[in-house]
Automatic annotation (TrEMBL):
JmjC domain residues: 139-287
InterPro entries xrefs: Cupin_8 (IPR041667), JmjC_dom (IPR003347)
SMART domains associated with the record: JmjC
Name the record gives this protein: JmjC domain-containing protein
């Protein structure tokens, strides 16, 4: 793991931008209707201060012995943070297979390895949306579902998956965006977030090329990452702590820095068809202009429509996603 990520959680990035990054709203006791009108529809991030306070995981997962007893027998493909590169055009991830009990015991030790379990599946949704994305997960951990309380802001059929993120602390996610609405709850440790609306894509990319959803990340010790127009990107900065939920709208660029020490978090991804299918096509098209943008929009929308028709024919509309779970290096369906 790069040493710089060990200290970046404690760095205040906001003043490095002109204008400085804004603050994220913090709310408590928000209703589904208020969340929908004030944040989800306008695509604004928000911290729900009491969003995960009722999770039994906040107490149970403090004890590594509990995690080992509950799901220690499960295999897991962990990302090797020293071997991969998630911050450049030469993006690649390196994985190795371990059992969850070994992963937990070593991450909670005095000398944790640079292993990071990302997107370990805890539960899947029931709707068609859960069929359209991932074909393989790095772990299947259904035993942990009883320690969570699903947030009330989306209908059950919109849930695609709920995942566990378990790392040594000090890691950075790199700057990227997801095509699903995201609710992220920290269970152990804290996370610093840099958040940028999707219309900042050209500024953030600054001519860089690579995977569509990834841009060069910001690092406190690298002034060139803020050079040119990148230092004028409009966005937000916030820190999330145990018991809080952060809403990250689909398409919002974000980079996450974890505090030192074992880091545990859970996220829920949601996809509401057909509205989110159109939004996904728009996200892809915004990086282009003129005819190229229209072509990209129609291409992505056509691919999504083909997926929907294929899966509807295969499983039936509105029926449960296939129950089998494939474990291995993370992958996505065509």
């Amino acid at each position: 793991m790069q040493s710089e990520t060990q200290t970046e959680f404690s760095c205040d990035f906001a003043p490095l931008f002109d204008p400085p990054l804004g603050q994220v709203d913090v709310v408590s006791g928000i209703t589904k209707e208020a969340f929908e009108s004030n944040y989800r529809r306008p695509r604004r991030p928000v911290i729900i201060d009491d969003g995960a306070k009722a999770w039994p995981a906040l107490k149970r997962w403090q004890d590594p012995a509990y995690l080992v007893a509950a799901a220690g027998h499960r295999p897991a493909f962990v990302r090797d943070l020293d071997a991969g590169n998630i911050d450049s055009a030469s993006y690649h991830e390196a994985y190795q297979e371990v059992r969850l009990d070994e992963l937990v015991e070593r991450l909670f030790s005095d000398q944790p390895p640079a292993w990071y379990l990302t997107q370990g599946l805890i539960m899947r949704g029931d709707g068609l949306g859960s069929m359209l994305g991932r074909s393989c997960w790095p772990a299947s951990l259904p035993e942990l579902a009883c320690d969570l309380v699903e947030p009330p802001f989306w209908p059950q059929e919109s849930l695609t998956e709920c995942n566990l993120w378990l790392g040594p602390g000090g890691q950075s996610s790199g700057l990227h965006y997801d095509e699903y609405d995201n609710l992220n709850g920290v269970v152990l440790g804290s996370k610093r977030w840099l958040l940028f609306p999707h219309d900042q894509a050209k500024v953030l990319l600054n001519g860089a090329r690579g995977r569509d959803s990834i841009a060069p990340g910001f690092h406190f010790s690298q002034a060139d990452r803020f050079a040119n127009e990148r230092g004028r990107a409009r966005g937000y900065e916030c820190i999330t702590r145990p018991g809080q939920l952060l809403y990250v709208p689909a398409g919002m660029w974000h980079q996450v820095f974890s505090s030192n020490g074992p880091s545990l978090a859970v996220n829920y991804w949601y996809l509401s068809l057909p509205r989110d299918a159109v939004r996904s096509a728009v996200l892809h098209a915004r990086r282009y202009s003129g005819f190229a943008a229209r072509k990209r929009f129609l291409l992505v929308l056509g691919v999504i429509a083909a997926k929907v028709m294929l899966k509807t024919a295969q499983y039936g509309f509105g029926k449960r996603a296939p129950s089998e779970i494939q474990i291995g290096q993370p992958g996505y369906r065509l």
